[in-house]
Specification:
Blueprint: H1 5-25, H2 30-41, H3 52-73, H4 76-81, H5 83-107, H6 112-123, H7 127-136, H8 143-165, H9 179-212, H10 216-236, H11 241-253, H12 258-283, H13 286-291, H14 293-317, H15 322-331, H16 337-348, H17 354-385, H18 392-396, E1 413-416, H19 420-431, E2 436-440, H20 443-451, E3 456-458, H21 464-469, E4 477-480, H22 485-498, E5 503-508, H23 514-520, E6 524-527, H24 528-543, H25 548-565
Parallel strand pairs: 1-2, 1-4, 2-3, 4-5, 5-6
Helix pairs in contact: 1-2, 2-12, 3-11, 3-12, 5-6, 5-8, 5-14, 6-16, 8-15, 8-16, 9-10, 9-11, 10-11, 14-15, 14-17, 15-17, 22-23, 24-25
Length: about 575
Amino acid sequence: MEASLLNDMIVIFGLSIAVLLACHAMRLPSIVGFIFTGVLSGPHGLGLIKRIADVESLANMGIVLLLFSIGMEFSIKKLKEIKRFFLFGGVLQAGLTVLAGYCIGKFLGRPFGESIFLGFILSLSSTAIVLRILQNRSEMDSPHGKAIISILIFQDFIAIPMMLSVPFLNGSHEGGFDVAALFTILKGVLLLIVVYISAVSFVPSLMYFIAKTRNRELFLLTVLTICFSVALLAEHVGLSLSLGAFLAGLIVSETEYSHEAISDILPFKDIFTSVFFVSIGMLLDLSFVFENFVLVILMTIGVLLLKSFIACLTAIFLRLPIRTAVLTGISLCQVGEFSLILVKTGFLHGLGNEYYDQLFLSIALFSMAVTPTLMTLSPYIADLAKLLPLPHQIITGLKANSKSDGFLKINHLIIVGFGVAGKSLAKSAKEANISYIILEMNAETVKIEKARGEPIHFGDATHEILLQHANVNESLAVAILINDSNAAIRVARVARKLNPNIYIIARTHYMKQMKAMFLAGADDIVSDELHSSIEVFTKVLQKYEVSSDEVERVVTDRRYELLKAYEL
């Protein structure tokens, strides 16, 4: 009897456990592990999987749930907060990359459609890998983190029209869109109208009625039904399941139950998306990689350099300092998971051939595999970039007239970073009549706060020239309140170098970052992890009516133990 799908799933999950453990030990992302699982278990590997068509059906479900969750997380309010990076940064990065891919395709003698398609698949980066690394390093709210996330969100959004245009790139519509193509577009517009009406009127009422029952199973079934129904409707009108799933996510996102829906869908999405990456790995021919190993490596290096350069150039156009631009460029250098979805879609519509598909899959896998290492090395590469003979504005992100823009003060406080902590400190300093200067990397924040009369300036405080403009030599103190721990260490080091007598206080997320900050020259450090843990057990002890003296003794002991554990 032929092996059942259940047997194949056991093989996939069991092999995935072993591969993911190995990837964890080598600090490789899970996506690489799932792809490699597919390589090993597929027809080009050990041949353990027999029912590949059934696996691909489960993989399609993963794509649907992935795009559905992205649609639910897509928020107009969120876009307003990052509109500058999202609109200008995303359009510039994607546009330049598509143009570069098109030029490469034409240089290689490929048709117009294939050349544009090459630009499409090169323009997308891996949201899953990059966001996970940024989260692990607590850099989501850092200047480069915000730029990276904004561009990634734009890429996820632009991937939808890219997928929609794939059927028209295979050369069958070279003379312009025919009647069938126009009819498909009209049906797509009609579907958008239906989605809008559903999002505004029908679905919110339905979700409210379902939520009142407080039946979690009923709620989950309703969400999944909306997802698959809209996805299937999109396919029936000539569009794609993926586009329909994204639109279904948009419908749910406009309700107040989107967060609950995301939490319920997440486990299913993770499982089925993992199967998708396994199915991609099954397509990769190891013999092709070995036969063309040098070409694959050289092409991977070329893709990494090209995408890094374009993303870095985009960040420079957004007036980000060179260090932040380099960090952004390196983080967006890999091929993304949506590119793999596009390649699979393109192959079904006659774009490319077996050779080019295998070459791209190989490049994608290698680029994903080296991303964690490159992002670890990126701060050091960014420091080297600051030594290049570049214009002052590119290095620091400052305008040409920044030197005379109200920087000169004496015995003042320098506040680096103007988030919640920075604003609280500035308000306290103002009430105490302490003169201060604010250095901030968010251009929108600088624009808003400057209009309110704050002495705030845009620029990267890791650069000596910016701190010199802030008259750090005559300053009494500097408060480093930024979320990028690597940048905070560099600010402390530069400030101590320029003014050996200055008082430096810094904030860190984790205690493990405190030692490096002290070595960089900080006098005092406030650790979010340390103070939150102390606050928690203090509240618990007080709840159990432990005496104030005993609570103080325990707090002192725990603080000492924690600091000693981290050699502080």
